[in-house]
UniProtKB/TrEMBL annotation:
Domain AB hydrolase-1 residue range list: 41-282
Protein name (database record): Alpha/beta hydrolase
Top-level taxon in the UniProt lineage: Bacteria
PANTHER family to which the protein is assigned, alphabetical: HYDROLASE, PUTATIVE (AFU_ORTHOLOGUE AFUA_2G14860)-RELATED, MONOACYLGLYCEROL LIPASE
SUPFAM superfamilies named in the record: alpha/beta-Hydrolases
Length: 300
């Protein structure tokens, strides 16, 4: 099930939208720049309840990296299929994304993941696609046993993980709660409300989409994330960690722990930015990624 064109969130311009069949799902992705090369590409994975649209202010500043950029709508988000019931945990996403990298014959990938997407990236880089991933960028990522915040992206997240939780809330109540809660993850909440809140919220405006949303929340499983975060010390690849200094959903201490435990990793702390750092400081995020990519090119 997809939305009408009038409802679609705006993704960065000048990209080419494509769809690929993986397992029995249609996965939508967008390709930008350098002209769609398959070696050394940047692959961008978004956070829970977001979509490719969340990168739209970052992408224009990344195209100067000289590499192709592949930006996905994860299953259950954006224009990709919304399977229900289905496994949309970090492992479920990583399963079909390993097939995505193989089907497109992407090699020496720079895998970039924000929030939930960072958890998926960890699995691909350490387990399922080690040979295809050359470097890793983790942005305010889920990690260790921190798979979700107590009150974000919805209030009372523990209770929302109960299987009958969708029956206790109407679509209208869920949308209202999202509108009240999501802006708390931005250091610029008023601007976020005006410029991007609708893109995050309006997508879930049906009974099916509400069920898929709750499915995503049930699949935020701490042990699934911790099972790979503990492997990052042996990932053996260049790693850049980017973090909003004011992130209240996944606090900075997690970035500092990742940095301590991943040998040779780089840490870029972005001031005046929260968990929604892609919105709060898109140019700073892009600048950090570009610098990291340049350093990869300079390696012998």
């Amino acid at each position: 099930m997809t939305q009408s064109t009038a409802q679609l969130p705006r993704v960065a311009g000048a990209g080419e939208r494509r769809t690929i069949r993986l397992i029995h799902y249609n996965v939508t992705y967008y390709v930008y720049g350098a002209e769609h090369g398959t070696d050394g590409a940047l692959v961008l994975l978004h956070d829970v309840l977001a979509g490719a649209f969340s990168w739209r202010e970052v992408i224009p500043s990344l195209t100067s990296s000289g590499r192709a950029i592949y930006v996905l709508d994860l299953l259950g988000h954006g224009l990709s299929d919304h399977p229900w019931p289905a496994d949309t945990s970090v492992w479920g996403h990583a399963d079909y994304l390993a097939m995505f990298l193989e089907a497109l014959q992407l090699t020496n990938v720079v895998l970039v993941g924000h929030g939930l997407g960072g958890g998926v990236a960890q699995i691909l880089a350490t387990r399922l696609s080690r040979e295809r991933v050359a470097a890793l960028v983790l942005i305010d990522t889920v990690c260790y046993l921190h798979a979700f915040a107590e009150d974000w992206p919805l209030p009372q997240m523990k209770e929302r993980q109960e299987y009958d939780a969708p029956k206790r809330a109407s679509v209208e109540e869920v949308l209202r709660d999202l509108r009240a809660t999501l802006p708390a993850a931005s250091a610029r909440p008023e601007q976020f409300k005006q410029q991007m809140l609708d893109d995050f919220v309006n997508h879930w405006n049906s009974e099916l989409h509400k069920e898929v949303l709750y499915q995503h929340i049930r699949n935020l499983i701490p042990y699934y994330v911790n099972s790979v975060s503990s492997d990052l010390s042996r990932v053996g690849k260049p790693v850049l960690i980017i973090w909003g200094e004011e992130d209240q959903q996944i606090p900075l201490k997690y970035a500092q722990r990742l940095h301590r435990e991943i040998p040779g990793s780089q840490l870029s702390i972005i001031p005046q930015a929260g968990h929604l750092v892609l919105f709060d400081a898109p140019e700073a995020v892009a600048r950090a990624i570009r610098g990291f990519v340049s350093s990869l090119s300079a390696r012998p």
